[in-house]
Amino acid sequence: MNKKELLEKNLVLTTEFSRYILEHPEVAKRIPKDAIVVILPEYDQELAEENLKIGKTRREKNQPMVLVRVKKLAPERKSRLVKPRLELVPA
After folding, report:
1. What is the spatial distance between Cα 54 and Cα 32, in angstroms, rounded to a whole number?
2. Residues 54-78: pLDDT tens digits?
3. At what angle do helices 45-58 and 3-23 cross, to 10 degrees?
4. Do residues 43 and 66 make contact, with C-beta atoms less than 8 angstroms apart?
5. How many C-beta atoms surround the C-beta of residue 15 within 10 A?
6. Sign of the CA dihedral 2, 8, 14, 16?
7. Smallest Cα–Cα separation from 72: which of 12, 8, 2?
8. C-alpha 54: how far from its chain's center?
9. Sequence-distant (≥ 6) Cβ neighbours of residue 63 within 8 angstroms
C-alpha cells in the first residue's frame, strides 16, 4: 500500500469515526484526555498493521492509547462504523 492509499483509507476511517462519535457522545467520554486513537479496520489487515505501527511510533511516553477495532464499513449513512470497540492500552 502506498502513502496515497494509506492517506485516503484513513481519511474515510477518521471521518466515519468522527461521525460515530457525534452520534454516540458516550463513546467520546471513554477516550482519555490526550490519548492517541488508532483505528484498526479488521476488514483490511494491511491498513490495520500500518495504523498500529504509526500509532506506536507517534505515541509519547505515558500517553494513553485507544484502539478502535472496526469490523466493517456499512453502506453510507450517518456513520458506517459497525460495532467499533475501543480498547485502552495502558502506558
Report:
1. 19
2. 999 999 999 999 999 999 998 776 6
3. 80
4. no
5. 12
6. negative
7. 12
8. 12
9. 34, 35, 36, 91
